[in-house]
Amino acid sequence: MAMEDGYILAESVARSPDRLTDALRDYERIRMPRARRPQLGSRQRAKENHLASPVARLKRDLRMAWRSRFGKDKSPTQAEWLYEYDVSQETDFSVKKPG
Fold first, then answer.
1. Would you say residue 99 lies in a domain?
2. What is the pLDDT of residues 62-90, one digit of tens each?
3. How many CA atoms lie within 13 A of 23 on its CB side?
4. 14-60 confidence digits (pLDDT tens)
5. Domain count for the chain
6. Which DSSP category does 96 fall into?
7. Closest to 75 (Cα-Cα) out of 33, 44, 32
């Protein structure tokens, strides 16, 4: 995600070199939705990784085994979606400005 951040930040600044505040606002607008999902997923994984109850751990382990055996899970606790993402396809930055 750091490379994605760098791409968007560089493009935002390149498009508004004299208006850094606008460039940073654009950067935040574009990155916030994508950055929010892994943060929430990380919080959820932290909760699941530190369960005190043996019964809760067993339920977690069975749920994880079920997910890995019977299909893709697009919940925030899975990471496949992170690697399939093409930052240039999600923004209008892939189109060069005329001039």
1. no
2. 988 887 777 665 555 566 777 778 888 76
3. 17
4. 988 899 999 999 999 989 988 898 888 889 889 888 999 999 999 99
5. 1
6. P
7. 44
Instruction: Give the whole-angstrom CA distance, residue 8 versus residue 28.
Output: 9
Is the four-CA dihedral 97, 21, 32, 11 of positive or negative sign? positive
Q: How many residues would you count in the chain?
A: 99
| Distance, C-alpha 99 to centroid of its chain | 33
Question: Do 72 and 81 form a contact (C-beta atoms < 8 A)?
Answer: no
**Is residue 14 one of the residues assigned to a domain?**
yes
Task: Taking each helix axis as running N to C, give the angle between helix 2-15 and helix 20-49, from 0 to 180 degrees, rounded to the nearest 10.
Answer: 170
Cβ neighbours around 7 below 10 Å, total: 14
Domain that holds residue 27: 2-94
| Residue 55 placed within a domain | yes
